């Protein structure tokens, strides 16, 4: 063991757990170390935030490069954020197919005064692709902003066959907003806001309402009829002496009347219950899209299921189709078609099935150049469709038992349909959301506390990278965020002194 090893190991405790730097200078730690090993002196906070941080970050980048070299394919996920210092940051995270490895935080940059145009965004994404390795990056996932879509076009021209998609969870959130703008729901939400604010603005009413809710809901229970429970709670609150004896000003008297009018209006509660029933499926859909095991084919499948759920309403169906057109890319059609459980794309939206055939051939022959034999590609497509449409009982049972689409492609498709298997490896590696990238900002909030607001974006990024990439060999999701709001104190956080 080298003399530097204990020093680096001690610093890594700080970096990998996110504990405050002041821990290193704590008198309590000094007493413990003196009792345990009087001859040992741990590094100071100043040393940890300076040379030791730089050294650990360099070692982490070497480990990250070695780790990435062993991954056959990755997706680049990116998201933006504004810190408490008002620094606009953009992060880049490498995500791997279906949790074969946990996401890796590649880098983050402060955009400073650089305008977020399609050209500039494409340039930053391109640099991140090169940092991972061009041949390994199969897809890019960002939000659905117009400037992002402009950047996609630039990248798709530069790297033919690169899949560029928007965050499906973001698209469903936008769909929810669209639904909430419908007149019947918008009026109900406005009145619900008046009801909620009347109670929330009065501490005594808030506490009494919380106690009433505790009697209506078992501990930890989430009611599937939330509007019904709220109605009962507010009605009970309005019948309390506390509510009747509430001192009101001329202005708040009007608000009290609005509150009473709303909670006694059966139509108001009926509209809320209708909205709750309408939007309930979207909540589970967002959860699935943000999960680490959701396949790209699930985006197509779940939009189809939602259309079926809303089929009795022309208004809702129109909103859904508009958002589907907003989020839909050819890769989603490819994934749905190649998912063996869909029987070669059964039930695809309108003309998608027809468009999918020639677009998939173009992807194989021109964009990715997986094969140059047109006849072989067409024959394999025809054989795949036939196998999916008319499976034997044994094949049908096997497909039903497959945990993921890639289970089928690894075990059967790779030998029966090798060209389409190469496409499937790409399609089923594409994340369905930016969730991995958005979780980075949770770590930033944990690291960049109010006491640490003098740290530069570059130093904060180093700390976040070390914290998140502490164990690149482990599997699973991103590191769990510690509970509590630690704050850092002392001069060690003033970067002008480190």
UniProtKB/TrEMBL annotation:
Residues 404-465 form the HAT C-terminal dimerisation domain. GO terms for cellular component: nucleus. SUPFAM superfamilies: Ribonuclease H-like. Residues 43-192 form the DUF659 domain. Keywords: Metal-binding, Nucleus, Zinc, Zinc-finger. GO terms for molecular function: protein dimerization activity; zinc ion binding. It is found in: Nucleus. Pfam families: Dimer_Tnp_hAT, DUF659. InterPro entries: DUF659, HATC_C_dom, RNaseH-like_sf, ZnF_BED_domain_contain. PANTHER family: ZINC FINGER BED DOMAIN-CONTAINING PROTEIN 39 (PTHR46481:SF10), ZINC FINGER BED DOMAIN-CONTAINING PROTEIN 4 (PTHR46481). This is DUF659 domain-containing protein. The lineage of its organism: Eukaryota, Sar, Stramenopiles, Oomycota, Saprolegniomycetes.
